[in-house]
Design goal:
Blueprint (H helix, E strand, L loop, with lengths): L2 H11 L2 E5 L8 H11 L3 E5 L7 E2 L2 E2 L13 E4 L3 H14 L3 E4 L6 H9 L3 E4 L3 H7 L5 H4 L2
Parallel strand pairs: 1-2, 1-5, 5-6, 6-7
Antiparallel strand pairs: 3-4
Length: about 140
Amino acid sequence: MTDDQLSIDVLESVRTVALVGASNKPERASFRVMAFLKTCGYDVIPVNPILAGEELHGEQVVASLADIDKTVDMVDVFRRSDQAGEVIDEAIQIGAKAVWLQLGVYSPDAQKRAEDAGLKVVVNRCPKIDIPDLSIKTPSSFNA
């Protein structure tokens, strides 16, 4: 499967996204990507232990993936590469279907652990770029 096809497959099959590394700073990519995913109809749960309990884009921030009380389809990782492995291991533990490592985030060993656990792994891409560029059908397009 090509990288483009993997992005399409993941983004057209998920509904609930946990965004790890969510920021309340408008200049941060995670802030803008979360807002964009919500406009596309995804249920986005912001994850950031420092902001836990606050509200971001109308959603309550949780401290960790383990604090989410619903099924998470995809974990979108906005963390440094040296911290991505821990997030991926948590994604495996909560039963996520996919992990998405944002632009510049690499963790080959953790990526392999995720794939071995049956998760789809998208690396060095951004859904805010891929959705329009690849004409991906998002949840809001299904409701149109």
